[in-house]
Amino acid sequence: MDPFARRPLGKSGVELPQFGFGSAPLGELFTKVSERDAEATLDAAWAAGVRYYDTAPWYGRGQAEHRVGRFLYSKPRNELILSTKIGRILRAPKRPEAFDTGFWAGGLHFDHVFDYSYDGVMRAYEDSIQRLGMNRIDLLLIHDLDVWHHGSPEMVEARMWQLATGGWRALQELKEAGLIRAIGAGINELGMMPRFLQLFDMDFFLLALRYTLGEQETLERELPLLVERNVGIVIGGVFNSGLYATGPVEGAKYNYADATPAEMDKARRIAAVCERHHVPLIAAALQFPLLHPQVTCVIPGAFSPAQVTANLADLRRDIPADLWRELRHEGLIRPDAPIPA
Fold it and tell me: How do residues 173-212 score in pLDDT, each as one tens digit?
């Protein structure tokens, strides 16, 4: 596959390359990353031709936006596409001496509050352009509006009401003013995309973890709905936060937690099929989502130049159609998952 071939992002009018840069690792997700390594990683991506960069205030509590912005602000703005997210406002902690970074190995010491109101969206947008050093953002996403992050269906409904009665108007105003080009939502959980589409005319979704070599339940209801409405799809978390990059090794992560024995066994069986066809597991994981015609782009993360180089090489690698057919025959991918003829 050509990493930089462009695909339309649904009906938005925006085109993205098939490969973009996900910046969560630069916020020190699970692993510390020095400033030198962060800059070298971004430099390697740019030198290799990467022109789409995704970030968020949540990634390292502002750190990823700072790092991405410091690197990109001097690049030709008309050559790059930038996305970030709204939904969280960063604030100084009340007790700095007791600050807990959570699953960020480092990052900046800021607390956050969720806010999907009109003022919250506008505040988040202004904060992001300051951290990024940019005067506009191409793609703006509603971030993490799900039970996983808000704790209960009732709280999700309250936040959704906040978005519907204020935040969505702010997003539309930003788009109408030319300050953003498309509105999306970053989704982690099954069932949320249809809920969004009931209320809002979405341009695209950034689907994390839920359409990967490891799991494809979104094919049952959600992806067909996006095809029907021509809503674009960007795939994040293409390695399910680790397992399909490292393989089934001790300590491998799956969807931000330690992989279970069943998850490890499935990855082991998929890796065995890949090995029989002389294809690295990571290459199959990168290319699999792009076999779906509605998927525009994959945005794997990286925290070293070598990872960027390897990801691009693996996306370019030829994969025989027989590999995909064997995975389907063995029940390791769904029978309705698109594969080459």
Answer: 999 999 999 999 999 999 999 999 999 999 999 999 899 9
Amino acid occupying residue 292: H
73-112 per-position pLDDT tens digit: 999 999 999 999 999 999 999 999 889 888 898 999 999 9
Name the residue among 261, 257, 298 with its Cα closest to residue 50. Answer: 298
| Distance, CA of 311 to CA of 45 (rounded, Å) | 10
Q: Which domains does the chain have, with CATH numbers?
A: 6-329 (3.20.20.100)
Distance CA 281, CA 284 (A): 5
The residues annotated with a catalytic role in the active site are 54, 59, 85
pTM of the model: 0.95
The full DSSP string for 95-112 is -GGG---TTBSS----EE
- Contact, 206 vs 185, CB < 8 A? yes
CA end-to-end distance (rounded Å), the chain? 16
